[in-house]
Amino acid sequence: MRKALFAPLLAVIACLALVVTPTLAQTLVSSPVIGNGTDGNEQCAAGIYATNRSESIIAVDPTHSNHLLGLSKFFFSSPISGGTDWSTVYRFNLGSYNFSGNLAQNQLLPGYTCVPGSGSTQWDATTDPNVAFDAQGNAYSAVLAFNMNNLQNEIAVNKLPAGASQWSLPVVVDQFTSNSGLGQEYDKEWIAADWTGKTDNVYVAFTIFSLSSGQVYFARSTDGGQTFSQPRVVSNLSGFNTYVYLDVDPGGNLYLEYTNFAHLFSNSGRAVVQVSTDGGQTFSSSRVGPSFTGEPFVARTNDGWTLPNTTFRDGIIDYFAVSHAYTGHLYIAAEQWDKGGCTPTTDASGDYDIAFYSSLDGGQTWSPTSCANDPSTQGDATDQFQPTVAADTQGHVAVAWYDRRAACPDKQPAKGYYTSPGASNYCIQTGLQWYSDSGSTVSPSGTNQLFGPIWDPQEPANEAAPISTVNAWPADYVSDLPHSVFEPCYNTSSGTFIPICVTFIGDYFGLAVSGGTADILNVSTYPTFNTSQPVSQWAQPPTASGAYTAAATYPAANNYYQQQVLIIAKAP
Hints:
single chain, Neuraminidase, 5-stranded antiparallel β-sheet, 4-stranded antiparallel β-sheet, 37 strands
């Protein structure tokens, strides 16, 4: 659950316009952005954000349905040409994709990156992308910024005014500025704006973790994001409350949803909804909803953090949306570890399926569990995971997820791309299931849609992480998967060092629905989307613990980076 927080800084913004042709296939939308950043040796440098992009969000402007706005993590390299990619040492900042017609402008959010020559950096990274539009077409994003050395972290909000091409500098919502971030850290922030036009309110919620609990805090702006109230605790259940969401229904009611875990790193949680009918001044008591069970902790590489066969960690267990057609209608899509039918199990031989729930009374009661993925894929030893859900003003509801039902192809689309050709429950497509909310019932529309091409989540790398007899990163192994080393990379067992590196494809991805059209912004490493080699070296932290401020470098193996691609799909 650890991620950290953000605060305002001066940023260098560079943009690149990219022609995007909306089709039912995946279309590349990420492109290089020049800007400053903090390298893996804690030095401020001029560089480029041109390698990996992961973890995304997307929203549709209510004043202009063709105007999409997405965000994701942009990973940093320095110097600008032929430098070192710092993806593996947690160096990234949030950037946006501003679609206008057939153009997608890539841009860093300003106020967080460093200025070369100014001394030590305040923020090493910003994370957890989210975005919301108000009724006038202004967009807002809550940002978490953090410093690796002193553990300072912050929540702030950037605004993109309607019709503008540049984001504003951030407005601070809350900060931990002393060296006390350990045991006091923000995470899982979310934002909502009153899209109904009834108020100028903007809402922010986030978790503050201590060593013994996690509570949800809330702040609001009544002046369009110029100022925010003092954050206050609104969750009232013990344990760890996280995976926070906010949204507004057509009546102007504000819904806060989060997942309650009994203890830190628990693999089972329950959904909790609280509603405000007065613009965030007060909230109802907790309305406890569906429960979800995650993958059990098992004795294998990356114990309990990753899906079978691969090294990337799983992300957020559930996702929440509010109907923009009917007051009080709510939806949840969640991972359920099962052996079929989305019935939870603690059996390690199960797999992930996607459970779907709806409420027609503001979260007081919920529908029985149903699976969003096709019956043939339920309990079939393949994983469907990281679900997201969204709804529009016409009763269309869409659930999307990452899907591993199809084996990796045997044929290579480019030299050495698939790290395990033909492997089952390994490579990824995007799955989509539509639902229709009539106002009195919510029912599925058609069967699953799948979108490719099938991509390898273990790229970029030149091979799977090997077992070693030396407690050091092996000289012949090169990997650039984001966040790929959690210290130490190797644990020993009877003299053999076993890799426990945990890699990252994002904790969630973006889905927006408008007028029966789903816009999906997600990751792919497929070679078609990677056309340049912007760096010559990849960084790896040394195996000594706590060494974020020292990084070794190795020759880059390939350029199959994580990129952001757009899928556009119509409801049946």
